[in-house]
Amino acid sequence: MGLEMTYRDALQKAIVDEMERDENVLIMGEDIGRYQGTFKVTRGMVEKFGDRQNRYNLRILDTPITEAGFAGIATGAAMAGLRPIVEFMTMSFSILAMDQIINHTAKVHYMTNGEVKCPIVFRGPGGAAKQLSAQHSHSMEGWYAHCPGLKVVAPSTVADVYGILRTAVRDDNPVIVYENPGLYAMKGELPEDPDFTVPIGKAQILREGTDISLVGYSRMTHINLAAAELLEKDGISAEVVDVRSLLPLDTETIYASVRKTHRAVMVYEDWRSGGFGAEIAARISEDCFDHLDAPVVRVGGLNVPMPYARVLELQCIPDEHDVVAAVRKIS
Amino acid sequence: MANIAEESLTLSPADLKAYYREMLFVRRFEEHCNTAYRKGLAGGYMHTYIGMEALATGWLNSIRKGYDYVITAYRDHAHAIVLGTDPVAVMAEVIGRKGGTAGGKGGSMHIYDPKNGFFGGWGIVGGHIPLGAGLAFASRYRNEDRVTLNFMGDGASNQGVVFETLNMASLWDLPCIFIIENNEFAMGTRLEYHAADKELWKRGLPFNIQSERVDGMDVVQMRKDAQRIVDWVRENQRPYFVEVMTYRYSGHGAADQDRQLYRTKEEEAQALQRDPIARLRAQLIEQNIMSEEALEAMELEVEEEAAQVMAKAEESPFPDPSEVYDNIYTDMTPEQGH
Fold this sequence. Notes:
- Chain A has 331 residues and is α/β, with parallel strands linked by helices.
- Chain A is 35% helix and 19% strand.
- Chain A has a seven-stranded mixed beta sheet, sandwiched between helices. In chain A, strands 9-11-10-13-14 form a five-stranded mixed beta sheet, with helices on both faces. Chain A has a two-stranded antiparallel sheet with strand order 1-8.
- Chain A is globular.
- The model of chain A has no long low-confidence stretch (mean pLDDT 97).
- In chain B, helix 8 links the parallel strand 7 and strand 8 (240-245).
- Chains A and B meet through helix 3, helix 4 and helix 5 of A and strand 2, helix 5 and helix 6 of B.
């Protein structure tokens, strides 16, 4: 039996365990200290690693609201040997830091031809939370997974977010951790092994099936699991492939599933056009063409700036019924 | 703001001779770069330091080389050379060879030498300023007494991220010296057309950072001012903001072939009278440190040395196509192929 905890608490446990293991690990971001974090991932940490009366705590550092600036400072600190974790209050705000992340962080190792390493983690909630509307609901993982030099992970379970975040902190390369806010309160089980980690770059099969592969990551993996339940009632056996890591992408595991089921639906919350799911769908089509009995279908978020009204917001985000409908289209 | 750091440095005749040689070498090196560009050996964007040599010599001889951190923008050859990087490796990088500081992957704008404390070499105007503060953050975090020299041009001083960084550097007591190499032009846009207040040194003041303006055309004074400020920052573990007045005689970059679009020949001629190299040469004679003959011999020697650097760099082969995916990551490559 493992420890039962929420995705949010698993995140904090990974951060705390890594900070206790290595004093070069620190976390910085907006309102993460005294205010305990907007999504409360860092609740109680300022007392653990400092003193809320201090003007600043370098290990758990409240930053001004200047995303580009602190993303760059963390990158410089990583170049000099620290291992910063940068929390973005939402991944939508990381857009302000994209010049730093794309033009600087992601280029350090290559432009120095390997002379300088940049061990840094950027993490935060991406995708729709609840009625945060157009400026706070972006799925940014595809933007980052487009860029060589970054690693991008999107864990969907409690054990994975803990294990992958620990691996990300120890990674000598910049890693973007995409956390869907819809997962924070989800409960799950964490293995008791104190050294438990999960490698970056490995997909997993969360449900075995024979008729179709439902490929997704982060919260969409749970949508796929729900869809698989519905499909089972109709006599369709769906396999759920949890991608976990977008860059690197474990095509081996994805392709093995598709070669077995001969059909694939790619599910992602990001805008349907040009989202990273489209890239995965393209690769399946290109590399598994001979094994496919039907075209690979994309189920993505509507190509709409996220609207506020709950009814419209829910319309934009794929759910299990959208997945079932897509499966029917090719079955 | 009052000048709170105190000047105490005295320079020996040997120091002055060494600075003359160093500045002259940088100038000859940069002239070879311009020639290499015209001959098609160097491509892309390339920016030389001609006219600004006293800044690199003044500042970088005031720090503990290899211990303190240095970062700058894309006008970066001089910083590497003065910090002790093999000039052949710098030139090889400028012309995209395997023997370059980044194996030909960076080019002129991206020279690095972390062993000598040099962290580049960055191409987005103002974009490296937070990185420099991050280097200072790391030394502050580890309770070391390093200082970081964070160079930028006058054009960069308008970027938003620079102001963000100044705020945090002051907030967190980062031992970082922000140095504006004010050569009066942001590419082809004159200072008065790009800065609402031409006194850029004031930009540190709103962040409660010690700030001042100094002259960068007199290497002796530059060296003394730099030492004074570096010592103060090391001692006090606080940021500092310095506007250094200088001038570049060359174009913005090697591709800038028409300087008269933004300044007159008369202005250039006037600025040439402030040439930091000619000025030091006159001082060496005036103070009987070197004779005209000794100077000429040294000048010939430097010229030959620079020519040899160029020749050696050209001997370095081009990178092998098999290296293209190397060092994107420490432990993997992205998807390969077109």
